Amino acid sequence: MKPIRVGLLGLGVVGGGTLAILERNREEIARRAGREIIVTRAAVRPVDLERARNRVAGRVELCTDPAEVVNAPDVDIVAELMGGIEPARTLVLQAIAQGKHVVTANKALLATQGNEIFSTAHDKGVMVGFEAAVAGGIPIIKALREGLTANRIEWIAGIINGTSNFILTSMRDKGESFESALKQAQALGYAEADPTFDIEGIDAAHKLTLMAAIAFGIPMQFDRAYTEGISRLTAQDIRYAQEFGYRIKLLGMTRRTAQGIELRVHPTLIPEKRLIANVDGVMNAVLVKGDAVGATLYYGAGAGAEPTGSAVVADLVDITRMATADPGHRVPHLAFQPDQMHDDRVLPVSEIETSYYLRMRALDRPGVLAEITRILADLGISIEAMLQREPEAGEDRVDVIMLTHRTVEKYIDQAIARIESLDSLSGSVVRIRLESLEAR
Ligand code: HSE
Fold first, then answer.
1. Known catalytic residue at 100
2. How much is the pTM?
């Protein structure tokens, strides 16, 4: 059989990793795919042309115009590895319009434009692989879409941004500052071009949006995701959480409830005895709860050249195997048949239900705690644990930390507003959500 020919849009970290894997494991990949998979062309940025030339030394035809790769007759699959919304969206749609299959690592593109891209691909009968878009090398899309297909998925919790996990781990273990840990992550090639995407939870929300779509059979609704990053977290809260036996992670959480779908990314306390709480550094992990299988955990490198390249190549092999199959008999892009998607409501954050860590600075005087607990009780919020520090010498105020049982977020909002209006409180109440992630 003739080789299947791939055109790369981008030969940076992920493109370079993909090419290296395809070349190194060429024979083994062909034995799996049934045909050889070769890269015929790659588009690179003008500034990278010279370096790319030295690297691929005539094996791959290089250019600086990605449309040239998309339109080339010797390209069967377009691998979009450039990132960003435009021109990636236009190029992907152009490839689809020409009946070419697409592989992309671009979570921002799919989370925001995926509904259009997948429906166009469906109409044209072409495949769009996106394993590399979520959690780098972890085959979580395959697991959700195929391995867990028997299950009604109940919830997914993921550490799906390596950069923020690296920062939180360095802050906790090495007492490193936020800025210096971020610089290291950038130097290692983990961070997005715009680091705000990493530290403000946007990248994680892109990935969570994709997982929620295939887990629940809903369209991508990134605009309804609640997103809160790690930039306001303090070392003090990381320490207090540890005293209670918790770690703080930037967690993506999506859950199916009777009221709708929760879709949220925020710093979260997780009991330190959970395996996922021990996922450190740049590593990623996704915990999936299915009604039949129970909880399953997927762990691995969430970024980097060859881990992400591994996911790209897996999609290239899948497409190679399925290219001649009738489109109606392929695995649906989003796990559910396109006419079987539901438009379940994504809940506003005020309607989510979880537990909370609350830290406040209160006057050390009789009755203050009673006032605070009365407010919580009036709103039906039950306290699970509490810690009050001895006041420092010469101080008349103390840190009070409370962990609550599960409640609906709007009640915590009301409680915080009432507590903050007490004369005995100074400053604002710090609120961090808490998930026990029990597999029951
Ligand atoms: N910036 C991302 C991360 C890279 O830190 O996880 C992979 O999507």
1. no
2. 0.96
